[in-house]
């Protein structure tokens, strides 16, 4: 069953910026979906459209089968962490949560539970203006968790977290996912979510480039043969003539098409000395960069 | 709606804005009253001086209303507010109720403080204090009502304009400078301008001032009250309508 369904969703800001361009996708229930794309790709805008904060210019999006604004007590079913939402600097962390809880019709006991979950009890009495970036991020996560929602939308939740915090977040999200919750998590760094997600959506310049299970994406990935040679230029010319796609930086080559055995044979047949020859299966990160079109070779 | 009202009251209580409002109201209700009672010749002391701070309180609650709404945009808390209550009209109604009643309460507090100053101060100058009677009480009641209305007007303007500094500065310049000028040079138009209309709801004290009678002869009290409510309704509805299509980013 799809928890979120977007159909031909577009958003234009002013005349010039087409932030989201005719995007159609669906998010499975109970899965962790990574929403990936470089800066300015349209991730935040899409998440805000799902939550009825940004009005689509065209198309529609449904969450839990309806528009967000039609969900009764939405905060108890959908939790959201958004990058530019904020807290009143003079309010304490606990009071910031109490305000959100009150608005959602939740008891103050939930506030204490959420504070414990994000390990922020110690700082709960302090004013938010004295919080570090990571502490604010934890507070925002606590806001998302207040209503014990079945769906979590997280916009770059790892922002501002230290390595330990990122590991904590990963474990935390896995635990939520194990409970059968649906999680959509945006990031511009795949490595950050690689170990957590089941599915991915890849977006760039407002367009959806790929969606599907993460295993399927890696299976389609083409291996790269890497070679190093003092006669790299000569080898490059030979391989290119045989139809391979070659990138060269100084003495290093990245070759797509032929297998490493073929590269070695070509080199041997033409008297090219090889210092290094190996096959690299691209990591998901490489794949992501390639799909998103921001890969810089070598 | 109940949880929304609770949330709004909690927002008020949990920042310094409410403390600031309390201090400001206390200051403007104490200082002018104390000064007047201390320095006016005894034969001129008639109890009227006890309302001296009321106009200032009105401007304070106006700014308070504007801040109440624009702070949400300024600090980005509007995102959480709309996530919990995606129906934006409801948020507007809750703000109007909570801020309107708080503004009215602030005026009530200011008037009580002024009476307290009278109870203590007047006998010290050898003048006896009289508990305000029917006419004065009705005046006070109207001032309390107008304070509530003005606060609501501030909320509505804040919701419509969103930018905090611009709204506070613009509204104060309009209320203190532009409107009085228009009233002076074009009284026919001036009668209908919002802050002048609010003033006319409580115009009984002004009416005794011969020079002002002409300018204020435009609207009877009930009319002025209705026009005030209309102003708030129009700006609130406009703010809600505009907010429906506005992006929260
Ligand atoms: N309120 C706005 N007004 C005008 N343009 C906007 C607005 N919000 C976003 N944009 C534009 O829309 C595009 C997509 O922005 P968005 O914030 O959705 O990207 P993102 O994928 O979240 O990027 P990042 O990884 O940097 O957070 C960008 O070109 C951005 O400049
Ligand atoms: Mg973003």
Attribute tags:
heterodimer; A: 298 residues; alpha/beta; Rossmann fold; Alpha-Beta Plaits; 2 domains; 6-stranded mixed sheet; 4-stranded antiparallel sheet; 10 helices; 13 strands; 28% strand; elongated; B: 249 residues; mainly alpha; 12 helices; 80% helix; 0% strand; binds adenosine-5'-triphosphate; binds magnesium ion
Q: Would you summarize the structure shown here?
A:
The complex is a heterodimer of chains A (298) and B (249). With 298 residues, chain A is of the alpha/beta class.
Ordered list of secondary-structure elements with their pairings:
The complex is a heterodimer of chains A (298) and B (249).
Chain A: E1 2-13, E2 17-28, E3 32-36, H1 43-50, E4 58-63, E5 78-81, H2 93-103, H3 108-117, H4 133-145, E6 151-155, H5 163-178, E7 182-187, H6 190-194, E8 199-204, E9 207-213, H7 214-219, E10 224-228, H8 232-241, E11 245-249, E12 252-256, H9 260-269, E13 276-280, H10 284-292
Parallel strand pairs in A: 3-7, 3-8, 5-6, 6-7
Antiparallel strand pairs in A: 1-2, 1-4, 8-9, 10-12, 10-13, 11-12
Chain B: H1 2-13, H2 16-39, H3 54-75, H4 78-84, H5 88-124, H6 134-161, H7 164-185, H8 187-190, H9 194-201, H10 204-207, H11 210-216, H12 221-245
The complex binds adenosine-5'-triphosphate (ATP) and magnesium ion.
The site of magnesium ion has 4 residues of chain A, from α1.
